[in-house]
Amino acid sequence: MKKTISGGSAAIMLALASFAADAQQKPVDIGFIGTLSTPAGYIGEDERDAFMLAVKEGGGKLGGVAVNVRVEDDALKPANAKQIADKMVQNGVRLFTGINFSNVMAAVGPTVLNAGGFYVSLNAGPSNYAGKACNPNYFSVAFQNDSYADTAGMAANELGAKRVVIMAPNYQAGRDAIAGFKRTYKGEIADEIYTKLEQADFSVELARIRSLNPDAIFQFHPGGAGINLTKQFANSGLAGQIKMITPIYSMDDRMLAATGTAGAGFYLSSLWSADLDNAQSKHFVQAFTKAYNRAPTAYAAQAYDTANLIGSALKAVDGDIAGRADDFRAALRRADFPSVRGKFKFGPNQHPIQDWYLLHIEAGPDGKLVYKNLKVIARDHTDVHAADCKM
Questions:
Q1: What is the phi/psi pair of residue 14, to 5°?
Q2: Residue 93 DSSP one-character state
Q3: Any signal peptide, and if so, which residues (predicted)?
Q4: Is 37 in contact with 104 (CB distance < 8 Å)?
C-alpha cells in the first residue's frame, strides 16, 4: 500500500531540512585574542589585519566555510586573556588563535585545551607546548620560541662573534630565547642580562655592556621595548663598536620605521622575508600592502599562513569541528595550504619544520633601510623540545 505524507508532516520535514541547512551554514566562530593596545599593540594589529585579509579574500570564508572572527584585546595581561577565553568557551567557541606573547598563551592554553577546543598559534611558541606538555589540539604555525634564538646563535658563529652579551625580558619567551641562543653559540657569554617585559629605559644595561666590551649583543625585545632599546643603543655610541644580532621580532618593519636609522647594521634571524621567491609570498606582500598601505611584517606573514592553514582544515570537515574533531586535527597536521614560506610542514610535536634566514639591515638604492637576505642559516630546522613530546 502506498503511503502518503500529510500536509502537516511535509511541513515539519521541510522545517527540519531548513533548520539543518541553517545549522550547516552557520559561520564557524574563531576566537582571536591578541595584544591590540599597549606599545606592543601594533604587533596584534598586523596579525589581525593579515588574518582578516585571508578572510576577506575568501569572501568572509576560510576554505569555503563561513567564519565569524571574534577579535578581543588582551592588553598584554594574562588575566584579561583568560577571562576573555573563559567567556568564549562558555559561549561555544572551540577554535582559537591570535595570542602574541607566551605569558598570555600560558593563561589561555589550559582554558581552550581542557574544553576540547583547538588552539592554532600564529606567534607565541612556549617551550612546554613543544615538549612535555604538547597536546593533540595545539598547533604552532610560527615557531617554537627557541628557534629564532638558536638560529641567531648560528648567525653569531658565522659572523665571527667571539664574546657576546645576551639580553632578554624575564618571561617565558625571553627565557626560551636565551636558552636557545646558548644552545648553538660556540663563543664566550660575557654576561646574561634579564630585563622587564615592558621596560623603557635601558641606560643601566647599556652601561654594563660598555664596561664588558663584547664583540656582539644578542637581544630579544619585541615591540615598544625593542624600539626604545634600539634608539638608546644608537645614541650611546655603541652601535659603531658592537654587532647587534637579533631575531626579526626585535627589529620588524614597523620597528625599523619607528627607529629611523638606528637599526642600520643589525643582523637578524628570520623565518620569512618579503623578497622570498615564491608565488604565495609575492601575492601576500602585494595584497597586504594594497589593503593596508604598509609593508607586512613577519608577524603578518605568520598570521596569513595561520588563516590559510585553518581554512584548509575547515574545508576538509565542511566546518564541522565538533562532530569531526579527529578529521579536523588530521587536516591541520597535513598542512595542505600554500605558505608564504614556500614549503611548510609540521614536526611530530605539531610545530614547524622550516628554513631560517640571515638578514642584514642596510641602505637600499634610494637610501632607505631595507632587509637584505644574505643566506639560509638553518634548513629544515626544528626545535629541540620535540624529542620530549609524547603524542
A1: -65, -40
A2: -
A3: 1-23
A4: no
